[in-house]
Structure formats: C-alpha cells, structure tokens
Amino acid sequence: MSNKVTIIGAGSVGSTIAYTMTVKGIASEIVLIDINEEKALGEAMDIKQGTPFCCPVTVNSGTYEDAKGSDVVIISSGLPRKPGQSRLDLAQTNVNIIKEIAPEIAKYAPDALYILVSNPVDILTYAFMKYSGLPQNKIVGSGTILDTARLRSYLSDYFGVSQRNIHAYVMGEHGDSSFIPWSLAKVAAIGIEDYCRGVKYSGKNTIEPPNYNEVMDYVRTSGGKIIKYKQATYYAVSVSVSSICESLFSGKDYIMTLSSMMHGEYGLSDVCLSHLFMVGIDGVKGCVTPTLTDEEVALMHKSGNILKEMIAGLKF
Questions:
Q1: pLDDT over 90 (residue 315)
Q2: CB 148 within 8 A of CB 277
Q3: Annotated binding site
Q4: Which of 8, 76, 165, 166 could hold 117 in an S-S bridge, CB 3.0 to 4.6 Å?
C-alpha cells in the first residue's frame, strides 16, 4: 500500500519523525519541506542513504506542491520552546507562522489528514482550523499523546509491569493545566486502588498506590527538564507522532488522546484540547466521553478556559 506523508519543518522534531517513520517502515513516501531548503535537502539525503537497510521508502525534500497526494501532513514548523519558557509564551509567533503555512499547504493537499505538532499545540491546532479552510475533522493536534506516554512509562516502572498493561490517560491542555483522570486509570483492566490492594508478587500482598500529585508533576515537568538538560525534546514526541501515523495506516480506527475541536463535550466548545477522540485515516470519526468525577470535569474546564483566554488575547 502507498502511504505518503509530508512533513513541514525539518528541524529536530520534523527530521526525527521522518527518520523514525523510515526505520519503522510506516510510510512508502516521505517529503520534507522547510523554509531552509538546504536543511530539508540535507536531512532527506541523510535519511535516504540509510534506506537500503529499511523497508522500501522514498525520502525527498520539496516544496508545498510536492505535497500533492499526501495521506498525512505533519506540521512541525515554528520556533522551539526555550529553557524556562512555557508553551503558551510561544503562541503569537507560531500562530503567525501557521497563518502563512495553512492556506498554502491546503491548496496542494486538500484531502490529507493534518497533524499539528508544534507548540502550543492546542492553540496552533485551533489556528490551523481557522486559517486552512479545511474540515475540522481532518485536523488534529498531537495533544497529550506524549503526556499519556510519559504517564504510562512512569506507572509501568512504578508497578513493575509491561507498559501494555497500563491503561491511563492525560487530558486537557498539552501544558501546565493538563490533568490525569485517575478514575479511568487501570492496571490490567483493574482500577489503581483495587490493583494495589489485590496484588500479590515478590512476597508482597499489597502495594502502596503512587502519589498522584508526584505523578502529575512528573508528567507536566518532563518536557521542561529535558529542555534544561539537552536544550530540546524530539525523540519521544517523534515516536509518538509516528505511532499516530502507524495507527492511521493500519486500516482501523483508534481511540487516542489527541487535540481537536470540542463541540459540547464536557460542556466545552470552540476550543481544541485533548480527550479520547476516535481517529482513522479519514480523520476524526467521533469521540468517547467516559463519565469523569466532578473534580475531573472541573479540571477539564480549567484547561479549556486557560486556552480560551489565550486565544482571546491573540491576533488572528
């Protein structure tokens, strides 16, 4: 099957997404586009020269016109977050970049599914919907899929079980107001508290539940810590975005914590944030709205209101 992916932005995130997809054999054709044409060319050449050891794939740099026929377009362009800078501080600059990109790429790839990766991802997903003129269901942000991966990694280490046995999510803004709906979190289909009371292994009859505040702090601050240590984050987000594409190309619909427009779910509208959306190669098919506790609904509203206030203060 032919799966064409165009990636706009050949920086650390965009080029690592291209590399990851090449190694995993997710796409048959990858096009890298960047305002710095030589950077895109160099990244494409570097990846392409390793393809004899991978699944068959064509990797090239190009222009917007080369995005014709794309099944998926990934937007990773924009300025990166600096040490000590919040995702929301980036908003206006990267919204202006999206304003330039959206109508141009939409002309050449009107049928593609668009995945926004640049931060602040919820704001830019909203902006791309406004500027591109494309149907909202064809546009998603990577949202809290990376936060969810960080959560599952933490809980897997804590409980000493495979990450495949961890079923838990991060919802809301991909940022400081994200939250974990612990009422939905499970280990092997068993609620966290019940699991801790009932587990029997390594001579233990019970295990203490994790400190929920510490877990949430870990998820929220991981990105900032990595930026502090190495000035950028790109491996985990690239694997996460590649996983989204892999799911889309599987032919089945997947339920993921992606960012998309809210249409009354949990009482929120006209804002993009993450909860459980059902997505396939044709776009967002629907959503799942499990019952949350009153506190969790309040946290969802807190995220939504923070993002709405930011949108109100931006120039669109």
A1: no
A2: no
A3: 9-14, 34, 39, 64, 78-79, 81, 87, 94, 117-122, 142, 147-150, 152, 167, 233
A4: 76
